[in-house]
From TrEMBL:
Keyword Ribosomal protein among record annotations: no
Highest rank taxon of the organism: Bacteria
One Pfam entry name: CwsA
Gene Ontology BP terms: cell division; cell wall biogenesis; regulation of cell shape
Lineage: Bacteria, Bacillati, Actinomycetota, Actinomycetes, Mycobacteriales
Name of the gene this protein is made from: cwsA
The name this protein goes by in its record: Cell wall synthesis protein CwsA
Native organism: Mycobacterium dioxanotrophicus
UniProt keyword Cell cycle, yes or no: yes
Membrane topology: Single-pass membrane protein
GO cellular component: plasma membrane
Amino acid sequence: MTATTDDRLAPNQRLARGLKYTAVGPVDISRGVAGLSMQAAAAAGASARRRYQDGQLRRQLAAVAEKLEALPDVLPDLLADVAPAKPKHRRRPWLIAAVAAAVLAGGAVAFSVVRRTKRPEPPATLPPSVDVAPKP
């Protein structure tokens, strides 16, 4: 194996490579996006931890806890005023499935177009299969 196959790609490099190559594009694009979102989630967690350690989040959580302590007193009044609402139908899974199907269909079309353009064109006129002027 060469040294280049052992190197791991960063998510942004994987996304760039996925957009460059159509055959492995959908796989690399999804892995790149997943990697970038994982990095964003890790950065958000680190930021929340840092804010908590600085005391900002700690004070905010203390204020929320005080309001939650008063909630049992206020809750019966609030529930008496609110009528039961209909449950919302979530359409997000269908939307995600539709987007995934569209991406796969687009990748298949792109793959077939690229594959078709790489094939050599057959000659316009084929040579005769037998000699036109037989030799005596």
